[in-house]
């Protein structure tokens, strides 16, 4: 007797993957094309939104930078014929005794101002702990000089420094002596500018340090105190390493801005007495807008740029020894 048997189950299985593969193959191109089209539309929208900023960056930043580099290699008076000068402007700069003097003046300002600014701002930030009553009021008061127009601040300080001003009158009433003529004495003029600049600018760094100190974990401070560390040891062993990235940022920004100092000496002393307080930026301003030598002024600006770039690079290389990011 002949028995009819059902076909093996395996015989029907191969057809399922084949159909699924065919369907997936036919559907995949359409889905991928839609995703590519959507990504393309998003990229175009992103480019459209970024276009105004990009155009402004090219027109008002990139182009002037390149143009100033070109001008630095030319004799470029404000009025008159212009000609290619090569490196003549740079040779004139480094052979000019006034340029060497203003470079030393700027360096002296940076050496005095940057450490004082950091010490004052860090000290006040360490003092303004949450246990200080009214710490938010103190923060606002310390930050006000930073947001006040700098020209107004300089005018007020000029009245304080001048003979018969508040400082001179206070010394006469208390000690019976006259204060030095700070702005007319070459030994005091730069110190007067540094003191005014520290008062003007410490509030910004103070807020940075204060926010960083507020982020130090309390459990680490308590552990150090349980081990017998005093307040000074706790600050240098626990707090300072944890806020070192903020200290590095503040140091870099303060260095860069201090090399570009202009308003304080320009309004207080006009660079005097003589050239005792004239800075690099003021020299560039005088050369370009008063002497109308735009090529020489552009060369001075690029020398300043290289100085700032070099010091910034050294700082970034040296940060590995004292900045802790973990």
Can you walk me through this structure?
There is one protein chain. 72% of the residues lie in helices and 1% in strands. It is mainly α and 326 residues long. A two-stranded antiparallel sheet has the order 1-2. The longest helix is centred in the first third of the chain and has 57 residues, at 15-71. The chain starts with 14 loop residues before the first helix and ends in an 8-residue tail after the last helix. Mean pLDDT is 86; it is low at 1-31.
List the helices and strands and how they pair.
Elements: H1 15-71, E1 74-75, E2 83-84, H2 88-95, H3 97-127, H4 135-147, H5 150-161, H6 166-174, H7 189-214, H8 218-226, H9 231-259, H10 263-268, H11 280-290, H12 294-318
Antiparallel strand pairs: 1-2
Helix pairs in contact: 2-12, 3-7, 3-9, 4-7, 7-9, 8-9, 9-12, 11-12
What's the short story on this structure?
With 326 residues, the chain is mainly α. It has helices at residues 15-71, 88-95, 97-127, 135-147, 150-161, 166-174, 189-214, 218-226, 231-259, 263-268, 280-290, 294-318; strands at 74-75, 83-84.
